[in-house]
Amino acid sequence: DDRLTLFITHGGANSMLETATRGKPVIAIPLYGDQMKNAKLMRKYGFGVIVEKTELLGGRGLHEAIDRVISDKK
């Protein structure tokens, strides 16, 4: 969908696969299980960033991640 600028997800396998096949950048906020591994792979291949749940307090970490992803023209 061209209306989608970026996708914020917990980093589950299905979400990551759907996003990767659509070529949209990701902000992953992994919480448990395989989510951190998936998020690290996403970051390694350059289609997103990771925000730790501890960075969500006050919204600053998420706000900064959104700005970083939107301004990255890769």
From TrEMBL:
<dbReference type="InterPro" id="IPR002213">
    <property type="entry name" value="UDP_glucos_trans"/>
</dbReference>
<keyword id="KW-0808">Transferase</keyword>
<dbReference type="Pfam" id="PF00201">
    <property type="entry name" value="UDPGT"/>
</dbReference>
<keyword id="KW-0732">Signal</keyword>
<comment type="similarity">
    <text>Belongs to the UDP-glycosyltransferase family.</text>
</comment>
<dbReference type="InterPro" id="IPR050271">
    <property type="entry name" value="UDP-glycosyltransferase"/>
</dbReference>
<keyword id="KW-0328">Glycosyltransferase</keyword>
<dbReference type="GO" id="GO:0015020">
    <property type="term" value="F:glucuronosyltransferase activity"/>
</dbReference>
<protein>
    <recommendedName>
        <fullName>glucuronosyltransferase</fullName>
        <ecNumber>2.4.1.17</ecNumber>
    </recommendedName>
</protein>
